[in-house]
Write a structure and sequence with these properties.
Blueprint lengths: L2 E5 L3 H14 L4 E6 L2 H11 L3 E5 L7 H8 L4 E6 L15 E4 L4 H16 L8 H12 L8 E6 L2 E6 L5 E4 L4 E4 L4 E4 L3 H6 L6 E5 L2 E4 L3 E6 L5 E5 L5 E4 L11
Parallel strand pairs: 1-2, 1-3, 3-4, 4-5
Antiparallel strand pairs: 6-7, 8-9, 8-12, 9-10, 11-12, 13-14, 14-15
Helix pairs in contact: 2-3
Length: 251
C-alpha cells in the first residue's frame, strides 16, 4: 500500500486535492491532512509516508522547510499558487509541482510520474540546491511586513516596534508579545502575525512560539535530545519542538 500526506494551511485546497487523488489514484492511502508544516514534519517522522504533497507557502514552516528537514525520507510534490516565473527553478530538478488550482489532468501526470519513480525504486532525490533556489526566489516576493504591534492594556494602547520584539507565544485565544522590558497580549492569532513577519528574522521553534533569531544566545539539548533556547536579556527559556529541532543541529 502506497501512503501519502497532504499539507496545506487552507482547508478547501487540501480537501479538493484529497478528492482528486481518491479519483485518479484510489489505491493511495492518505494517512493524514496537515494544516501547517510542523504537523507535516511530525507526521512524516511518525507515519513514514511514501509521498508528501506540500504547499510551498505555509506560515512558519514552509513546504520547502519540511522537505529540507526530512532529508529525502519520502517523495515530495509541491503545490503552489505562484506563476511560472517563480517556479522556473523546478525545471532543473527531478521533482514535481502542482499549480493551484490543481487540475485533474495535471494531477494525473504527477501521479503517473510518481508511480514510475517508485516502481523503478528510484531513490528520493537530494533537493537541497533546488529548494535553496526556490526559497530565495519565493522570499523575494514582495510581502507587506509588520512594523508595529499595538496591544490594548486596560485604557492604554502599548506600541511595540517589531525590531524590539524577542518572541511571540500563543495559546488558543491570545498571542503574547515579549520585549526585553515589557510584554502584552493581543487577540490576533500567531498564524496571522507570521504572515507579516520576515521568516529570515523570526523563526518558528514550536507550534505556538516564534522567536527573533538574532536574540538566541544558545540552545541546550537534554539527554532525550530535546532542545530549549535562551534569549539575550531575559531569563525565560523556550522549548523547541521536535519539528523544529533541525534549526539547531551543529553545522
Amino acid at each position: 500500500m502506497t501512503t501519502a500526506i497532504i499539507a496545506d494551511d487552507e482547508d478547501l485546497p487540501r480537501k479538493e486535492l484529497r478528492r482528486m487523488l481518491n479519483k485518479v489514484w484510489p489505491e493511495l492511502e492518505i494517512v493524514a491532512e496537515c494544516e501547517h508544516g510542523a504537523d507535516a514534519l511530525e507526521t512524516i517522522h511518525q507515519s513514514a509516508p511514501d509521498i508528501a504533497f506540500l504547499d510551498i507557502r505555509m506560515p512558519g514552516m514552509t513546504g520547502l522547510d519540511v522537505a529540507h528537514a526530512v532529508k529525502g525520507r519520502c517523495h515530495a510534490v509541491f503545490t503552489t499558487a505562484y506563476d511560472s516565473h517563480a517556479i522556473d527553478a523546478f525545471a532543473a530538478g527531478a521533482i514535481d509541482y502542482l499549480l493551484k488550482p490543481v487540475s485533474e489532468a495535471r494531477l494525473l501526470e504527477a501521479v503517473t510520474r510518481l508511480k514510475e519513480r517508485m516502481a523503478s525504486k528510484q531513490p528520493v532525490n537530494d533537493l537541497g540546491q533546488l529548494m535553496s533556489e526556490l526559497d530565495k526566489r519565493l522570499r523575494n516576493t514582495h510581502v507587506e511586513r509588520i512594523r508595529w504591534i499595538s496591544a490594548s492594556v486596560g485604557d492604554t494602547i502599548k506600541m511595540f516596534p517589531v525590531e524590539k520584539i524577542l518572541f511571540f507565544s500563543s495559546d488558543e485565544k491570545y498571542t503574547r508579545v515579549v520585549c526585553h522590558d515589557d510584554e502584552a497580549h493581543v487577540r490576533k492569532p500567531l498564524k496571522e502575525l507570521m504572515d507579516g513577519l520576515d521568516p529570515e528574522i523570526f523563526w518558528q521553534i514550536h507550534r505556538g512560539v516564534v522567536v527573533r533569531a538574532d536574540a538566541i544566545t544558545r540552545a541546550h539539548r537534554d539527554e532525550l535530545g530535546k532542545y530549549t533556547v535562551e534569549l539575550r536579556g531575559i531569563e525565560e527559556k523556550l522549548k523547541v519542538s521536535q519539528a523544529y529541532a533541525w534549526r539547531f543541529k551543529p553545522m
